[in-house]
Design a protein that fits this description.
The chain has 226 residues and is mainly α. The chain has helices at residues 2-24, 29-51, 57-60, 63-78, 89-114, 119-140, 154-169, 174-195. Residues 214-226 have low confidence and may be disordered.
Length: 226
């Protein structure tokens, strides 16, 4: 039951980020719903195919399509109500994205562990589940995916796996393990956004390349309108 709730939270959160990203690219209602669905189900579908975990979640629960479509429509029609918050709308995007990242990382870890895999596969499953839907969202919206922009993203999913498995190893009650991992992982992600924590960036320019613009906005400003 707890994992079902966590799954629905993750689906809704990342589905809304897909709708927001599509809205920023001025897509029609159909496009917004499609991007929201791909964002919500992309990571879990890739994980399940790679691990041979069938049926796929959206095949087993097709009514979840309606949930994401509803979340996308609420985002569309609710956006004007929060227009006066537009200067900070990118923060809403990143907070929801972070919540979905951690929720899906926990679910990916649990799926791998339930199938009998060890830590390495569980960590890979967590990163794929948490990040790949966002990768598809950003690529389809013509943006560099957040996971490739330097700040801690997939790394937070990996840390969430470490926390989750570590707490299980200590034989802590399962609900406490899930909530603790969700809260700690989410806080780490928010701190990474706020302070710009990230991995080293590889910047290679040859002599024939055009000048590179180093004056890029930090990730927390990527979705703010000029």
């Amino acid at each position: 039951m707890l994992f079902d709730i966590l799954y629905l939270i993750g689906l809704t959160a990342v589905g809304i980020t897909g709708a927001i990203a599509a809205g920023r690219e001025k897509m029609d209602i159909f496009g917004v719903i499609v991007i929201a669905e791909i964002t919500a189900f992309g990571g879990g579908s890739v994980r399940d195919v790679l691990l041979g975990h069938y049926p796929l979640a959206w095949v087993e629960n097709p009514d979840h399509f309606l949930l994401i479509a509803g979340a996308a429509l609420v985002t569309i029609f609710g956006a004007p109500l929060i227009k006066h918050f537009n200067r900070h709308f990118h923060i809403i995007f990143l907070v929801l994205d972070g919540l979905g990242l951690i929720a899906f990382a926990i679910l990916g870890t649990q799926v791998a562990l339930t199938m009998g895999h060890g830590f390495t596969i569980a960590a890979v499953a967590a990163m794929i589940t948490g990040a790949f839907g966002g990768v598809l969202r950003d690529l389809l919206c013509n943006r560099i995916p957040l996971v490739f922009q330097g700040e801690l993203y997939a790394s937070v999913a990996f840390l969430s796996t470490c926390i989750y498995i570590g707490l299980q190893y200590l034989q802590i009650e399962q609900n406490i393990v899930v909530f603790s991992t969700l809260i700690i992982g989410f806080i780490i992600r928010l701190l990474a956004i706020y302070y710009g924590w990230g991995l080293p960036v590889f910047d290679f320019q040859d002599h024939d390349s055009p000048p590179h613009n180093d004056d890029k906005l930090p990730e927390r400003q990527k979705y703010e309108k000029p």
